[in-house]
Specification:
Elements: H1 20-33, E1 39-40, H2 52-63, H3 76-88, E2 99-102, H4 104-116, E3 122-127, H5 132-139, E4 143-148, H6 149-155, H7 157-164, E5 169-175, H8 187-200, E6 203-207, E7 233-238, H9 239-242, E8 251-254, H10 257-270, H11 276-313, E9 326-327, H12 339-350, E10 352-353, E11 355-356, E12 368-371, H13 376-394
Parallel strand pairs: 1-10, 3-4, 3-5, 5-6, 6-7
Antiparallel strand pairs: 2-8, 7-8, 9-12, 11-12
Helix pairs in contact: 2-11, 3-11, 4-10, 6-7, 7-8, 11-13
Bound molecules: pyridoxal-5'-phosphate.
């Protein structure tokens, strides 16, 4: 090789984007650095601090010198706690080796896709979808095949999936509750998709990051709990959203025997496990989990309802979503229908940060994502700023 020539980056990165949400965040940072007040609705994390008993459990682990290498798939105490939780709370029948501890939901999803995807495989996913999923699929040189959710719900989910299924289809990515819409698939819909997966011999990667953040109606049905599904489903959980632990980077995957070795191998050769004291904190979080979540749910609900009211008075049409952290309304007539342009107007002219819906797939175009998991003051101030720009713009 001649001097000055360099090998190119691996081809697998050709079809991988780098979070567009980060671009919004960077612009927000610029405005903040310039001393501007920004009404921040672009994020995606719980508004409250991590629970004190969880922090104390990490402190205890450090004072007990629990600071050495742990088994790469997780300390036995945490794996046992996970097993108990997924069997009783989620109803997933699984063997003792099923849980693997990972560095947050993201590593679990990465390991799950890595376990299943060969180049050229196709993945069915409902759209709008959480942005990184398409990048994870692209990284593995596989193909994301989008199934528009609203139309599929009218048509019947199985029939909509059948239309997009080819001999290359390997799996369904299933995300309920959904980011960005906050929708939850019903039990009947979940059963229909499970039956489809069984009939067609497909695997399912079920992303249940928001399992605990459901504010009304029936709880989430874990697709892996349905008959014959635990054998073909890798379920990905995270402590980030349930227990306000986004920065701890702790999650877990539950996998059937046939996929366990691959998942464990990915974890072994990427991070060699999760920090040992963090795992001890995880034992406390999962043991006391339902307590924390119950305490916070009312706070989420009231934030959601206040932001919905604020958006409605600024001319948005929106019904409160049943779950997760987000509102995903259509842009009102006084904003451009192009979601990137709409988000830009709100940020530049009213210092309101949102995420353009196009980031979540073509079905998200014409929408904006607002997180309601922010302080009460942010909601009050943001709603006022929205009302002001709505009346100024409508009167132009
Ligand atoms: C649908 C969905 N899955 C998984 C994750 C990953 O969560 P973690 O922060 O634990 O990596 C997120 C985070 O925003 C999410 O929205």
């Amino acid at each position: 090789m001649s001097e000055g020539a360099f090998p190119p980056t691996a081809r697998r990165f050709e079809s991988v984007g780098f979070s567009e949400i980060v671009k919004v965040r960077n612009r927000v940072m610029e405005l903040l650095a310039a001393g501007q007040k920004v009404w921040r609705f672009e994020g995606g994390e719980p508004w409250m601090d991590s629970p004190e008993p969880v922090k104390a459990a990490m402190g205890d682990a450090l004072s007990r010198n629990q600071t050495r290498y742990a088994p790469s798939s997780g300390i036995p105490e945490l794996r046992r706690t996970i097993l108990e939780k997924v069997r009783t709370r989620n109803g997933i029948p699984c063997d003792d080796e099923a849980p693997v501890v990972v560095n947050g939901g993201m590593q679990g999803l990465f390991a799950a896709f890595s376990t299943l995807l060969d180049p050229g495989d196709e993945v069915l996913l409902f759209s709008p979808y959480w942005t990184p999923i398409v990048d994870l699929i692209g990284y593995h040189k596989a193909q994301a095949v989008l199934v528009p959710t609203a139309a599929a719900r009218r048509q019947g989910l199985a029939s909509a999936l059948a239309e997009k299924t080819t001999p290359r289809t390997k799996l369904i990515y299933w995300n309920s509750p959904n980011n960005p819409t906050g929708d939850v698939f019903s039990r009947a819909e979940t059963e229909e998709v499970a039956e489809f997966a069984r009939e067609r011999g497909l695997a399912v990667i079920s992303d249940e990051a928001y399992e605990d953040l459901v504010y009304e109606g029936e709880p989430v049905v874990a697709i892996g709990s349905l008959p014959g599904m635990s054998e073909r489903t890798i379920t990905c959980y995270t402590l980030s959203k349930s227990y306000s632990m986004t920065g701890w980077r702790l999650g877990y995957v539950v996998a059937p025997a046939r996929y366990q070795k691959a998942i464990k191998t990915v974890v072994l050769y990427t991070t060699n496990g999760v920090s040992t004291p963090t795992q001890w904190a995880g034992v406390e979080a999962l043991t006391r989990g339902t307590e924390f979540v119950a305490e916070w749910r009312a706070g989420y609900r009231s934030r959601r309802d206040r932001l919905v009211a604020g958006l409605k008075s600024a001319g948005f049409e929106i019904e409160p979503p049943r779950a997760a952290l987000y509102l995903f309304p259509r842009t009102p007539s006084w904003l451009p229908s192009d979601s990137r342009a709409a988000a830009r107007v709100l940020l530049d002219e009213a210092k309101i940060a949102t995420v353009p819906g196009i980031v979540f797939g073509p079905e998200g175009e014409g929408h904006l994502r607002f997180s309601f998991s922010v302080s009460e003051d942010m909601i009050a101030g943001g709603a006022e700023a929205l009302a002001a720009i709505a009346s100024a713009t409508s009167g132009r």
